[in-house]
């Protein structure tokens, strides 16, 4: 079975930057994710949203990045939401204890 290709599609909504992440998020694609996050992470004028609807897999490295984004956005007092988390990945978030810090956020 071929691994689903990792992909990030950036969408600009009124007051949000939405990154649609699909495929498999593991160590090998971390540079790609960091690259996509870099320009938008410090922007406090817009909420940062990760939409994980099409994410098939995430490893501890991926979770680590989400946690670091969470901390940074918190320090900046800037909104950060993780949306449409697939059940299998939500279970992982629950197990690692980060679910309670991830706010679904309002749908636009």
What does this structure look like?
The chain is α/β, with parallel strands linked by helices and 108 residues long. The protein is globular. Strands 1-2-3-4 form a four-stranded mixed beta sheet, covered by helices on one side. The protein has helices at residues 30-41, 60-75, 87-96; strands at residues 7-13, 16-25, 47-58, 80-83. It has a single domain, classed as STAS domain (Transcription Regulator spoIIAA, 2-Layer Sandwich), CATH 3.30.750. It contains three helices and four strands, in the order E-E-H-E-H-E-H.
Secondary-structure map with pairings?
Layout: E1 7-13, E2 16-25, H1 30-41, E3 47-58, H2 60-75, E4 80-83, H3 87-96
How many structural domains are formed by the residues?
1
CATH superfamily: STAS domain
End-to-end Cα distance, whole Å, is 35 Å
In order across it, which strands form the biggest sheet? 1-2-3-4
Count of β-strands: 4
Binned, the helix content reads 25-40%
Question: Care to give the gist of this entry?
Answer:
The chain has 108 residues and is α/β, with parallel strands linked by helices. The chain has helices spanning 30-41, 60-75, 87-96, and strands at 7-13, 16-25, 47-58, 80-83.
Properties at a glance:
31% strand, 108 residues, single chain, Transcription Regulator spoIIAA, 4-stranded mixed beta sheet, alpha/beta
């Amino acid at each position: 079975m071929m691994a689903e290709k990792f992909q990030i599609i950036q969408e600009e909504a009124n007051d949000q930057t939405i990154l649609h992440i699909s495929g498999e998020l593991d160590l090998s694609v971390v540079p790609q994710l960091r690259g996509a996050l870099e320009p938008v992470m410090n922007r406090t004028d817009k909420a940062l949203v990760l939409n994980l609807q099409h994410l098939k897999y995430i490893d501890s490295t991926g979770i680590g990045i989400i946690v670091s984004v969470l901390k940074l956005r918190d320090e900046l007092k800037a909104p950060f939401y993780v949306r449409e988390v697939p059940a299998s990945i939500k279970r992982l978030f629950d197990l690692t204890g980060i679910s309670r810090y991830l706010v679904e956020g309002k749908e636009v």
